[in-house]
Each structure stands twice: as C-alpha cells, then as structure tokens.
Amino acid sequence: MDHILVAKNVSKTYGDYTALSNISLEIPKNCIYGLLGPNGAGKTSFIRIINQITHQDAGEILFNGEPLGPEHIAQIGYLPEERGLYKSMKVGEQALYLAQLKGLPKQVAKERLKYWFDRLNIGDWWNKKIQELSKGMAQKIQFIVTVLHEPKLLIFDEPFSGFDPINANIIKDEILQLKEKGTSIIFSTHRMESVEELCEYIALIHKSEKILDGKLSDIKNAYKNNMYSIGMHVDGDIQPLIAQLNEEAEVITSNLDIKDNQWDLKVQLPSEDTATILSKLTKMGNVNRFDELVPSANDIFIQTVNNKENGK
Amino acid sequence: MASKLGLIIKREYLAKVRNRSFIVMTILSPLLIVGMIVLIAYLAKVNDEDVRVVTVLNESDFFQEDFTPTKSVSFVNFHNLNLEQAKDSTNALEYYGLLYLPKGASLEEVAHQSYLFTKNNPNTTVTQQLERIFQRQLRQDRLKRLGVSSEQFSSVEEPFEINLSTFEGERSMKGINELKAFIGGGFGYAIMMFIIIYGGFVMRSVIEEKTSRIIEVIISSVKPFQLMLGKIIGTSLAGLTQFAIWIVSASALLLLVVMLFGVDISALSQDPNMSGASMPGMSQLAPMDSDMMLYAKEILDIPWGLMIFSFLIYFVLGYLIYSSIYAAIGAAVDNETDTQQFIFPIILPLMLAIYVGFFSVFSNPHGPIAVGFSLFPLTSPIVMLMRLPGGIGEGAVPLWQFLLSIFLLIVTFLGIVTLAAKVYRVGILMYGKKPTYKELVKWLRY
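^ inputs. structure came back:
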C-alpha cells in the first residue's frame, strides 16, 4: 500500500450548506501534501472528517488501506487552525495530559516531552502557566503535542499563522525532518505561496469541490505556457530589437534601464523550442538571464477557477 | 476508552479544585453561613431586648398589682405627681408613654377613664398588652359580682390545647408535618443550589475550552461525548469534595462559635436527662419540655439513612440531567453573557419545584400536586426529597412512586444527555454565532 490516506467520493453537508461534495483524494506515504484553497472551501471540514471529529455523509476513507476507524486516532497528529491551550494549566502538566489522551503511557510521554523541550530550547517552561507565554511560545508547545506520539500522518491546518519568521523556520525544519523519518504530512492553507516550496503533491479545493490534484511538478508543467523572463545588456535603441523578436515570439512587457543599459522583457513563445530565440538574443547583446516563468500554485488556482467558471 | 474518560475526569477535578476561587469559596462559605447565623441570632436578641417603658400614674385604688413587666413592655410607677408633672417627667426621661388611671369609684369607671399618652401613635403590641391587662381585671371584676371567686376565676383561665393522635394511637404533634417538610426542604434546597452552582461551573468550563480554542485539539483525541461526560463527572466530584469540606468545617466552626459566644446549646439539644432543678426556668415549662421530647423523637424517627441515600440518588440524577443541559448551553455560545436567555428556562423548573414544595408539600405531602411534581423528572429531585422525611410505605410515600420517580429520572437523563451531546458536538466547533433556539433544534439533526 503506497497511500497513507485514500478518500473516495466523500461528501458532507450541514443542513442546507454543502461543505464537501464528492471529494476523492489519494495521499501518498512519506510525502508532504498540500491541501490548498481559499477560506471556506471545505479544507477544515475534510480534515475534521479524517480526525473523526465529524463524519462524512457519504463516501469512504481508507487509512493505510483500512477503513478509517477509532483505532487510527493514535496514529494521526492534528494541529488545528483554531488552536489553543488551557490558560491556567502548567505547560508540562498540560502537554502530559494531551499526550496521554493520544494514548501515550505517562512515562513515555514524559521522556519524549523532555527530549522535545530540550530540542526546542524551552526546557525551563515546564512549570510555567500558558497565560504567561506569548502566542508564538504557546504555538511551540502545540507543535510538540501534535508530534509527540509519533503519528504516521500529521495534519497541519494553517501551521505558520501566528509564528514569527524565526520560529516558523524552526518549525519548518522540524517538519522536514519528520518527513525524512517517514511521516506523511498534510498541509492545509489558504496562503498557497507559504507551503508551495514544501509540497510534493497538492490538491486544490474550491467551493466544496476538488478542482485539481496531483504531483506539484506535473501540475506546473501542465500549466506552463512558454512564458520567459529575459534580462540582457544592450547598447543603443531597443525598438528594432523588439520588432526582430516579434517575428519569433510575442513580447509582452519590455523595460529598459537607461543608466546601465539593462533590458528586462517578458516573452511568450509559440512552442517549447527555445533554441531559435536564444540564438537571436545572443546576437543582440549579452544575455544575463533567461528564466522560464513557471506559474505559482496561486496562479494555477486562479486560472483553474476562471476556466471552470467560464466553461460553465 | 475508559482510561481516557478517567484522564478527563481527573483533569477536570484537579482544574476545579486547584482553582483559586474554588479554594476561596470553600473557605469563605462556612464562615459566611456561620456569620449569618450569628448575625440573625444577634438581631433576634436585640429585637427581643427592645423593651418599651411605660410610666404609670395610678391615682385610683385599683390595678395596684397588675402592671407586671412583660417581654416587650415594662412599667415605672409614678407617685405623688399630678398629670402634667407626670407627662413632663415621662418626656424628660424619654420613656415610651404614660398610662394615666384617674380616681374612680369602681374598677369599671377607672378603666373607662384611663388614658395612654404617647408621643406618636402607639405601637399595637403595647396597646394590646395594656388592653389585655385591663380586660383580665374587668372580666374578673364582673365575674366576682356574679359570685365567682378569684380562685375559681384562675382555675377557669387554664389554657387549653387539643390532644392529637394518629389512628394507630400514637400521640401525634402539631406542626410535625411542617417540620418534616422543612427538613426535606433543606435537602431539596441544597440540591437546587448545587445544581445551579455546579451546572454553572460545567457551563463555564465548556465556554473556557471554546474560547481558549483547545477544544479541537482535544476532540481529535477523544469523542466529544467523552469530554462532556468527563467534565460533568469531574466537576461533580469537585462539588462533593467541597460539600464534604463544608460539612466538616461548618460543624467545627459552629461548635467553636457555640463555645465562644455561649449560645445556649441546651435550648437546642434534646438531652432527656436535663434536670429541671438546675434550670429553674424550665420547671414551669414542663409540658413544653415533653413536647420538645416528642419533636426530638419525631426528628430521630425521620429515616435519616433513607434521606441521605435518596439525597445522593436524586442529587446525582438531577445534577446529571441539568448539567448536561448546562454543558450544551456552554457549547452553543461564545461567552457567558450570551447564556442568559438559555439559563432562565433551566432555573424555572427548579424554582417551581422549591415553591411547589414549600406551598403544597408542607400542607399536604401526599396530595395530588405533591405527587405529580415528585414524579415529574425536572422537579422530582427536590419535591420528592421534601416528601421523604415521612419515610416510604403506608401513610407516607408509596414505594411505587419512589421507584417510578427514579425510573423517570434515569429515562429523562438518557434522553437529555443524547440531545445535549448533539448540541454540544456541533456547538463546540461553532464560533462567532449567537445561536437561537431554532438553530439549536437544527443542530440536533446534524
């Protein structure tokens, strides 16, 4: 079995409101999977179903090949978007309680907590109360509690909101390390750029429907449209050059910095063949940049949604 | 599963018991209660001691021995003063009033020409006391003229109380039903207070989990129903702990107060060996004393074992029902101010139970209203306890009613906890909405 989680035609409605309609997803093992979409798309509803907080009205979910059931709760770690801790409880006590609720024996939980507290340099927080900690500090505790029972599947809902950049990086590194150790990870976020670099697979969810999913590199390749960003050093007038280039491709934007004769332009090629235009460019001047403009997940999302709505 | 419930119960219990306000409440409440008792006793005493002094200017030959001080009026006799001087002196001494009896040929004449002078309109207690003195003398005087001697008169004046008995021949007592209902009422009242206070704790604890946003973390590990149940049980254990502390510390404090302030404990105690000789005041109260003994016997006859046993049963069942509703309310709202509209309908049946209990059960513990309310599950924990001091069996609460009310409570609990859990499950994940009743009904169908 190479999928940690498989969802087949999962639907969920609250009264008249449809939260999920016919969602099917396959989440491979040992990868980082991005569940992307704007607020209210249905991401959290889907995650709550995986965590068995609510149940789907229709459809089936397999965890590691078995139908999802209460016995899998201990194998899932969940950091919700709406996360918090008991304010008047001590840090150590609280972490111990939450770990035990996940099924860890007290002694094991204690040892692992000590390891993690030392690792994140918060060993001296054990007897502090949550209300004495800053929001970012509390988030560290929440992260530890989420991963402490070494789950096979980790789910992070908007994981980086509330973290300052330094702590966000620490957590990002920890997540990557967990992935190295074999954990499967789901990221859910509406800020697509924040997790794009981490995800190998993504699914785009919009208005309760999945509109796109697959390997991120495949999706990007499919959405490439032969747009290139070029930078070059030129002497003299650029108007004739533009006319020359337009024979081969379409110049979308053009900007010349007169001070140091740096010419930046964006070009749309008719095909994937770059040899012709490159040879032409090299004759015009000194090319110092030639990048393919790969669409971001956000671009792809907007394009897909537009296509879909125009198609209707 | 069971161990998770245990963990939740333990956490809820410790969170409650360690809470500063819980500790303060636990320590202060007995002090407050004892303080209240002392204050009430003190005020009652002060009230009793408020004796009004009436000066008496008696120019007649009658009523010489009759103005003896009573509980609320005492008398000062003026001699050799005229009326104006007496009035001035009374005013100067700031006494309550002046009673003037002029010279007269007969007692009848003197009585009818007497005046009570006061600064303002006189207090009815005072006028009644004085009138009683006049009436008694007038009656005696009139009867004497009809040939009745003072001795004969005194023997006629003997007070009378009717003898009471049950059909079985035991001597029954006036007011014993009220006494029993009062004791039962105390138990019922305790249940009501406990439900309101600890139901509120459960509700606030649910709201706290919602506002601190820890709820989703927890219910990804345990079922919402487990969390709700653990919270209800943990809080009730904290409450029982508090009760135990109160009972022990309040009795200790009461004992201390009694010893320090010398409150007459013998008046409260029912010691049958109390000798009349050592308490001269008591000897003339001999019939009263035997009444007291009878009351004491009746109090001891109350099936205390049954009372405590059923207190626990009715408390547990009643608390479970109400605190499930409280938990559902806590889950439905975002903050405590939004709870008002939902709280009132919960407290209503509890208050109804108390009022029905005090008005109906006191006068007729086994009448149709008392029976009905002691079977209806939302009021039965309170009303049934008010009926129970009479015991179970013939002439008291029939066994079938007792069992039926418990059965109904259990069925109601199962029904309510199912509904409450549904509202709870949906509500804990809802933020930013102030729900209406209509919406709550919709949640039941999710």
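Chain B touches chain A at residues 4, 7-8, 11, 15, 19, 208-209, 212-214, 216-222, 224, 429, 431, 442, 445-446 (CB under 8 Å). Confidence is low (pLDDT under 50) at residues 264-288 of chain B.
thumbs up if we can close this ticket
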